[in-house]
Specification:
By secondary structure, the chain is an alpha+beta fold. It has one domain. It has 6 helices and 6 strands. The strands form 2 sheets. Strands 1-2-3-4 form a 4-stranded mixed beta sheet, sandwiched between helices. It starts with 10 loop residues before the first helix and ends with a helix.
Length: 145
């Protein structure tokens, strides 16, 4: 996130990219529609039952993402990520996205009104002649403070 310290307008996009990268999500269908499930699996399950495709909650020492449908798994998935502060505090999804989950009202979208087109446009700092340099982005996402 240190890249965004000088560019605060990029913070929501950096959070979205960190979330997508860490959970290996499809941005338009899995990451962008993610809603806050607050502190617990029961709330997350109720939002999945009501039709949300992606629900993120904090469950003890893990950030848990429940997906109604996941790529080639029609029965959905439960993905969990733990704290990585010991290795990479600047990109610890448990603390960075976990704080976003806490700050977002239960049932509301984590990334507000961001749309896929606008998010893709923000890849510009990582672009090499119009194509994304995944290595550059990965290096930025996993940089230690």
């Amino acid at each position: 996130m240190e890249f965004c310290a000088k560019l605060p307008a990029y913070i929501p996009f950096a959070m979205l990219f960190l979330f997508s990268y860490t959970f290996l999500l499809r941005m338009p269908s899995e990451a962008l529609p993610a809603v806050s499930g607050g502190d617990g699996a029961a709330v997350a399950q109720s939002y999945l039952a009501s039709g949300s495709n992606s629900v993120v909650c904090i469950n003890g020492e893990s950030l848990v993402l429940y997906l109604q449908k996941r790529k080639n798994k029609p029965q959905g998935s439960k993905l969990a990520r733990k704290c990585t502060c010991a290795k990479a505090p600047g990109s610890c999804v448990y603390h960075l996205i976990g704080q976003l989950v806490k700050d977002t009202p239960v049932g509301e979208r984590l990334f507000g009104s961001l749309k896929a087109g606008g998010a893709h446009a923000r890849w510009e700092p990582f672009s090499v002649q119009g194509s994304v340099s995944l290595l550059m982005f990965q290096k930025w996402c996993t940089r230690c403070d």
